[in-house]
Amino acid sequence: MNIKQLYQKFLECNSIIDIDSRSISKGSIFFAIKGENFDGNKFANEALDKGAKMAVIDSDDINFNNNSNIIKVDDSLKTLQDLALFHRKSVKSKIIAITGSNGKTTTKELIHSILSTSYKTISTDGNFNNHIGVPLSLLKIKDGAEFSVIELGANNFGEINFLSKITEPDYGYITNFGKAHLEGFKNISGVIKGKTELYNWLIENDKTLILNYDDPEQLKFKSSNHFSFGSKLNSKHVFETIDSKNVTVKCDGIVYKTNLYGDYNFSNICCAISIGLEFGIKPKLIQEKLKYYSSKNNRSELIKINNKNIVLDAYNANPTSVEFAIKSFIKNKGTKAIVLGDMFELGENSAIEHKKIIDITDELNIDRCIFIGEEFFKLKQDSVKNIFFKTKQDFYELGDIIKEENILIKGSRGMQMEGVLKNNMIWKYL
Q1: Residue 108 DSSP one-character state
Q2: H or E stretch covering 408
Q3: For the chain, what is the domain count?
Q4: Is 420:325 a contact under the CB 8 Å cutoff?
Q5: Helix 76-90 crosses helix 159-167 at what angle (to 10 degrees)?
């Protein structure tokens, strides 16, 4: 069966794809995806029993009893990716691709929020931004969608280029270049090389680059087909900061207020506003949308309980985002405590980068620093200000030690630092 024929099957299955047999939509087409610790082929019959109309499999080792609803292919994942590309070529939606080390999801959601005021717009669910998530996101684009905002993630070279070929974006933006996924990219130069694969693809295919002129690396990618924003006067859309706590910016004399915390969100907001202006959305509509937009899912959430101001930024972390978060946090008035969890995927740089974060906190006006995780614990030092715990449970069992008025909580996704609010002395104290 070729891709064109499979695409007809996809349409017959209500254009719904499932890859998890535990949550099957009636009439869907199930793709049996294999991973390091699982084999979706083993669950194809279960998916059909639960309501899937068809299943795409790539195994010769499992007996499917000549089921006519089973479609055998050489590689289920590649077939899923090929199907996504075929679908992308079939829809009229303009696609905006977003990548970068930090702020991808927030920027994606801001863009979606603004564009949806005037256009039928879809965006990537959550952080479905890898070689599986991107195809699934593309296959959700329906007829009539005018814009699709697709997040592209990567932890090694070649991945952004690969995802760009599947997505075929009309526009692309890189949020920033930070010390993320160093296990694959090795260093900041590697990060830049990996992330700019998006800009290179856009240039090669005569598509539009969205450039932050405040970023010297992005200035290197000026092309005949781009638009820009930033605080520099030579930007097409020039912004200035009015308030960096609850980020408020001004462009062309118009003030845009937000509920987003931290000056590291400045470029995320400016990018979204610029895209809205580029596509003719009235500033008043943008103002209204930003006024009521709030971060969620543990991304720079501001939580105020009694007289405590808590910044819950526990969705993810890398050395760059942690440094940004800390330096923004210390601008708050009153006493301050930070609770930091380990940063993952740093490879051989892990010890160095964790030590740098400790050194940064030592230099700043922070009353109490709590470090949690095996990587931080290896660097344990005798200090009244700094306290180290190997696990969150060790931290929970110590008792009430945080009295400060402002609390920042941050760590890599695997640390699940949001648990600090629910399970330990902070919660009890509040």
Answers
A1: H
A2: strand 406-410
A3: 3
A4: no
A5: 50
